[in-house]
Amino acid sequence: MNRVRVAAALALTLTALSREGRAQVAPDTLRLAEVVAAARRANPMLQAARLEADAAAQRIPQAGALPDPQFQFGLMNRPLAGFGAAEPMTMNSYQLTQALPWPGKLSLAQDRVRNLAQAQRLDAEQAEADLIGSVSGAYYQLAYMDRALAVMGQTRELLRSFHEVSSAMYGVGTGVQQDVLQAQVAVARMTEDITAMTQERVAKAARLDALLGRDATAPVGALELPAAGDTLPGVDSLMALAAARRPALRAAHQRVLAATAGFREARRELFPDLTIGVSYGQRPRFDDMVSLMIGFSVPVWAHSRQLPLRHEMRAMQAAQEAQERDLYNATYARLAELRAEAVRARNLSQLYATSILPQARASVDAALASYRVGRVNFMSLMENQMTVNRYAIEGVRLLAEHHAAVAEMGALLGAGLEESR
Predict the structure, then answer these.
(1) What is the pLDDT of residues 243-277, one digit of tens each?
(2) CA–CA gap between residue 142 and residue 150 (Å, rounded)
(3) C-alpha–C-alpha distance, residues 89 and 50, integer Å
């Protein structure tokens, strides 16, 4: 009679806990769009990148401006004996000179700086895209941890009920002490796992807070983990989007253009720069005098200055072209990797949700029915339920990995993947 009562209590407990384990988690409160908007507003590194782009834009007019004219005043030809005495060559001299670079030098210098400033602006856009990818990755990791902790909490409650039932059965002589001890160990191990993941969530939340530009102890509430999206575009389509839109690739091309302008400017360094000037001589007791001057630079040290500069700029141009090709290839390879990861995680998470988990839960139901009639031992029932919970955790982990991979692909495309479709 006691065994019948214990078995009935166990059946009711397992049924209730099984329903609880299948219940949905609490509604989400902090959406990804809100987190991304906060990061765009307050992330210090993104602000620094934008300010550096603004500073680079201010160099454009500087590069195209003429050198400042020089004004000189002199007391010319004053006799040492009687400083104020006036001689025919004694005068107060006023001189104004202006340097004029060879035609094309300033415009090429300005083109080079303009391209570099454009590259800096695109770097800031890429920093924003990378920030969104990092924020999204941290967000989905936290969303996974929240759901995993919920599943683990339900599992621990289930194990505690197993311990109570096994203790009751052992107390009435229908169970064995080994079941009690194994249930205690399982509860302790689950508590250990919950403690470790709770602290890991604290660390990940601090990282997300840092990306949002706020204090590392700011609380991070419940997060959303939506279902996997539609079929992803092919790798070639993704790369076409990246080639047209990724700021880092466009910035690399701007640096190639800047190096090309720098090489063309260096070729003109052999051409002389002109200097023109005008001077006015004020003579106290004689007629005033005026002078006009013109001069030009002579590249007598061309083999140690202008020609090495030309070779340097040519090497810089080739280096920028090589870096652009390398970045293109690296982007292509990374998109292929991320797409494969996203498809794998999506397909496996769907497999867990539609096939593996339902079968595992059906196995628990069958084990429960068999336990009621004494055909399955206690530990087999517990192991079946633990398997269900492991599969549930693995399913949400794969879903989070899918979203994180899609977010990183969005960073490589320079915009969210949904925006690029």
Answers:
(1) 999 999 999 999 999 999 999 999 999 999 999 99
(2) 12
(3) 59
pLDDT of amino acid 1: 43
- pLDDT of 228 reads 87
pTM: 0.81
CB burial class (10 A; 0-12, 13-18, 19+) of residue 302? Answer: middle
Phi, psi (degrees; rounded to nearest 5) at 104: 100, -25
Per-residue burial over 374-404, b = 16 or more CB atoms within 10 Å of its CB, e = otherwise: eebebbebbebbbbbbebbbbbbbbbbbbbb
- Angstrom distance (rounded) from CA 247 to CA 268: 32
The CATH architecture to which 2-79+87-420 belongs is: Up-down Bundle (1.20)
Q: Which residues contact 391 (CB under 8 A, 6 or more apart)?
A: 352, 356, 357, 360
For β-strands 289-296 and 91-100, DSSP reports them as unpaired
- Please, is 407 exposed, middle or buried when counting C-beta atoms within 10 Å of its C-beta (0-12, 13-18, 19+)? buried
User: Rounded to an integer, what distance in angstroms lies between the CA atom of residue 391 and that of residue 103?
Assistant: 73
Domain boundaries defined on the chain: 2-79+87-420
The answer to whether the beta carbons of residues 198 and 149 sit under 8 Å apart is yes
Q: DSSP characters for 29-47?
A: -B-HHHHHHHHHHH-HHHH
